[in-house]
Write a structure and sequence with these properties.
Elements: H1 3-13, H2 17-37, H3 41-50, H4 55-58, H5 67-75, H6 80-89, H7 98-119, H8 130-137, H9 148-151, H10 161-173, H11 176-179
Helix pairs in contact: 1-3, 2-3, 2-7, 2-10, 3-6, 5-6, 6-7, 7-10
Length: 181
Amino acid sequence: MEREEALNLVKSKVSQKNLVKHMLATEAVMRRLARHFGEKEEVWGLTGLIHDLDYQETVDNPDMHALITADILKEKGLSEEIIHAVKVHAWKAEAESKMDWALYATDPTTGFIVACALMHPSKKLASLDLKFLMNRFKEKRFAAGANREQIQTCEKINLSLEEFLSMTLEAMQSISEELGL
C-alpha cells in the first residue's frame, strides 16, 4: 500500500480532525525513528499513519480497537509486521520488534507533545524544546492521559527519554503546518 492510498483510507474511516492529526504525527515520528535506526521508512511511516483506523468505530468497545484495523489491513494485503505493530500499540499482542516498541512508545507521546504546545504561550511546536518537555513530563497531572510508563518504553529500543522526546518533537515540528501547531 502506498502512502496516498493509506491517507485516503484514513480520511474515509476517520472524521475527527484531531485524530487524523494524531495519525499524521505518529507517521512523522515513526519515519524519524526509522531513519535513526536505518529501518524501512515507508513501512514504519505507513504503520504510524494507519494505526488508529478503527478508533472511532471502537471508541465504545475498546476490546476491539486495533483488531478491526488488523482485519482491514489483512484484506488490503499489508504485511504481518505492520499488522502486528498495530495490535501491539493497543495491547492486543506482545511487542516483538523494534517497530512494535517504537509505535507503542510513540502513540501517547504525540498527544503529550500536542498538550505541551497548547499550554505554551505561543501555542506552537516551534516554541518547544527538550527542557520544556522534560519539565512537563515530570508533572503527573499534566496531560495525565499520556501514559508516562508507555512513553518510557522507548528504552526498549535503546533510546533515552530525552533522545526519544527530542526526535518526536523534531518530527512533529517538521509537519507543524499540517498539525496546525
